[in-house]
Amino acid sequence: MDNGRTDDNRATMALISARGVGKRVEGPTGRLDILDDVSLDVNTGETVAITGASGSGKTTLLGLLAGLDLPSHGSVRLDGHALETLDEEARARLRLKLVGFVFQSFHLLPALTAEENVMLPLELDATPDAASRARKALAAVGLEPRRAHYPRQLSGGEQQRVAIARAFVHEPRILFADEPTGNLDHTSRDAIAGLLFALNRTHHTTLIVVTHDPALAGRCARILDLVDGRVRAHVT
Q1: Low-confidence ranges of the chain (pLDDT < 50)
Q2: What is the 3-state secondary structure (H, E, C) of 52-111?
Q3: pTM of the model
């Protein structure tokens, strides 16, 4: 059965590949082109920042690369899988296997403790040692002593650390981070950025960051700048 994979050599294949990707939606004033003819490759272990003004298509591009949405035209391949050939269930399985997410607003469940929030991806995958792995992930971000606290009992920086632990607990090959420092003070921003890049180095995890923060973008090996839905610059 065709599962969207190519037979290319995985050693030389880009982990993420987009070709001629566009995204359009129908609005009250007619068709709106959010992305137009975007092509890029991202290799294993790379750190890439996606920058641009508000409305330039940054978050839309991240969603397409992660398989959260499908392009209106063009192709996105994630670890060799052509995402447009997969249904939502298959894309969800692929994300669970390969991908972690960190968002600006943390997306922690308020009724769960820090440990329980971190356990969620493991429980979805029926991992038997979910609790011990969650504690190890919290320890890696300096929060094991706070594992029984609820999100309302944690600072913004601590909540983002929990979100990062949750993203890394199943050891994904790719981390997508959408404005991960946007809601944090200066000290917390620096700490979270340092943590993301330390985990990238330790686990060789591919890191793709959508950000308005030039300091965070500048720490990435490559910067893709979006202007009106097109990649106008590959800054290295």
Answers
A1: 1-11
A2: ECCCCCHHHHHHHHCCCCCCCEEEEEECCEEHHHCCHHHHHHHHHHHEEEEECCCCCCCC
A3: 0.86
